[in-house]
């Protein structure tokens, strides 16, 4: 799966409003050029973006970290945007205009390069990644869903034999190499899916594109609006179209003037089964880690994600 580089407001042509981005009836040229009508629509999951690639000779989870301009460069960029319409015409001095990042930082793959330097996107940021170290408190929730000793991750996806059933399992990190995923849970983005509790937080990884939308209406404003408002499958944050050329086109409920988060999400309308299959690991997991908690409820089935109560 490619790293997410297409902004949400590129999915449909938009008109600016104070503090809002709203979709219109017209599909953008970018979406048409990417053949959005033949693309695969998937649920946009509300979390924080992650990436799996090699670090220190083994598969590692990486957290999203955008390199941002310093105050002087940001002010210069904003002044330019007020006077011009195309941010791509702005000249960046990458070596001087941006705040420092850790040495282990890497730019996202799809970022444009100029003379060997990654270039900022239209928002003035350079999307990138930093590895999630085990004892890094800044990324403790990321760290809770991986075990580097056994190179496994806690993943939520559809059950292979039943698309109406969700499954939480321990997946080899090697199976997720070069994929992007979404980290969701108690302490991410206000926890729109109601996972865990403050006392017993719960976090999971979802591969991007894992939840394909089966019954999406035509790409007309009113049809999409009706689908989001009236269809059970429409109780999601948004839609991501995966195009054949690797382009990702997105639309958010906010672009249609709809609220998010909402009380009853589609993700919480399905039963979920725990399938850890950790018999091959003789190691005694740390008593407080999620892998240990899930091993105690292995093979149990719950009516919805919200119902999972860890035996702490």
UniProtKB/TrEMBL annotation:
It comes from the Eukaryota. Signal peptide: none annotated. Its cofactor is Mg(2+); Mn(2+). GO terms for biological process: response to reactive oxygen species; RNA repair. It catalyses: ATP + (ribonucleotide)n-3'-hydroxyl + 5'-phospho-(ribonucleotide)m = (ribonucleotide)n+m + AMP + diphosphate. Keywords: ATP-binding, Ligase, Nucleotide-binding, RNA repair. GO terms for molecular function: ATP binding; RNA ligase (ATP) activity. It is an enzyme of class 6 (ligase). Its EC number is 6.5.1.3. Functions as an RNA ligase, in vitro. The ligation reaction entails three nucleotidyl transfer steps. In the first step, the RNA ligase reacts with ATP in the absence of nucleic acid to form a covalent ligase-AMP intermediate and release pyrophosphate. In step 2, the ligase-AMP binds to the nucleic acid and transfers the adenylate to the 5'-PO4 terminus to form an adenylylated intermediate. In step 3, the RNA ligase directs the attack of the 3'-OH on the 5'-phosphoanhydride linkage, resulting in a repaired 3'-5' phosphodiester and release of AMP. This is RNA ligase 1.
């Amino acid at each position: 799966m490619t790293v997410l580089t297409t902004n949400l407001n590129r999915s449909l042509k938009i008109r600016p409003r104070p503090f809002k981005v709203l979709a219109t009836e017209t599909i953008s040229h970018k979406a048409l050029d990417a053949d959005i009508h033949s693309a695969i629509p998937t649920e946009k999951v509300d979390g924080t973006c992650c990436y799996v690639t090699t670090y220190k000779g083994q598969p590692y989870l990486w957290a999203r970290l955008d390199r941002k301009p310093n105050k002087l460069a940001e002010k210069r960029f904003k002044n330019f945007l007020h006077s011009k319409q195309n941010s791509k015409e702005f000249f960046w001095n990458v070596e001087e205009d941006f705040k420092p990042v850790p040495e282990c930082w890497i730019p996202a793959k799809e970022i444009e390069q100029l003379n060997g330097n990654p270039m900022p996107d239209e928002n003035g940021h350079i999307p990138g990644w930093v590895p999630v170290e085990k004892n890094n408190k800044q990324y403790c929730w990321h760290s809770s869903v991986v075990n580097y000793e056994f190179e496994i991750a806690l993943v939520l996806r559809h059950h292979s034999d039943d698309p109406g059933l969700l499954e939480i399992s321990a997946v080899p990190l090697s199976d997720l190499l070069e994929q992007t995923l979404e980290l969701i849970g108690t302490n991410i983005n206000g926890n729109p899916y109601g996972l865990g509790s403050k006392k017993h937080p719960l976090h999971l990884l979802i591969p991007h594109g894992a939840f394909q939308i089966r019954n999406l209406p035509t790409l007309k404003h009113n049809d999409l609006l009706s689908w989001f408002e009236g269809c059970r499958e429409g109780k999601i944050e948004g839609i991501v179209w995966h195009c054949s050329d690797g382009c990702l086109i997105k639309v958010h409920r906010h672009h249609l003037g709809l609220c998010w988060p909402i009380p009853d999400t589609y993700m919480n309308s399905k039963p979920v089964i725990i399938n850890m299959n950790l018999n091959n690991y003789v190691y005694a997991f740390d008593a407080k880690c999620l892998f240990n908690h899930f091993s105690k409820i292995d093979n149990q089935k719950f009516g919805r994600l919200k119902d999972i109560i860890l035996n702490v």
